[in-house]
């Protein structure tokens, strides 16, 4: 078992039941990133905040510094002699991720003009490519706007990962991988989602950037 998963289950023993799904989610994400894909993320309320949080861990250094490759550093020095070293010393390796909850003008326009339950599906349709992954967070597993985004993603050939509560709701049968936290109340589920996605982010960082 991966060291991050060992630490996770030691701190949260009840999440032992989720280890297989977490590992499967990691493998889906690893394959996507190896293929030049990106991660799209959506959720509502606290899960919207989690969507933003995950992007923050993937798009910059989390547990490691992720320096840019020497070849790119040389390109920066050539393209910008005055600032190249400053930029190269501070840029960090990124795993591309987009939070679909962030685009206020688009979301409000689409909800007002077209359909509020399709605010995430529209972005999946606009951003998504077959090598990408959609991660949907819903404590019930039944959030309609997340479900419609998952269905759109699957029609487009994207892999889909769900993070839910105990039953998985409708997402359990819609997602390629569904991580079902063994709790029922929203606060309890969300409290366990955080260490799970932290573990995933650490595993991905180690895979692509080393320790």
Tell me what the structure shows.
Strand 3, helix 8 (144-155) and strand 4 (159-164) form a beta-alpha-beta unit. The model has no long low-confidence stretch (mean pLDDT 97). The protein contains 10 helices and 5 strands. It is of the alpha/beta class. The chain has a 5-stranded parallel sheet with strand order 2-1-3-4-5, with helices on both faces. Helix 2 (19-34) crosses helix 10, helix 3 runs parallel beside helix 10 (186-209) and helix 7 packs parallel to helix 8 (144-155). The protein folds into 2 domains: 3-59 and 94-209, Glucose-6-phosphate isomerase like protein, domain 1 (Rossmann fold), CATH 3.40.50.10490; 65-93.
By CATH, the topology of the largest domain is: Rossmann fold
Please, what is the oligomeric state?
single chain
Q: What is the CATH superfamily of the largest domain?
A: Glucose-6-phosphate isomerase like protein, domain 1
Helix share, percent: 40-55%
- Runs with pLDDT <50, length 5+? none
What sequence of helices (H) and strands (E) makes up the elements?
HHEHHHEHHEHEHEH
Q: Pairing-aware structural class of the strands and helices?
A: alpha/beta
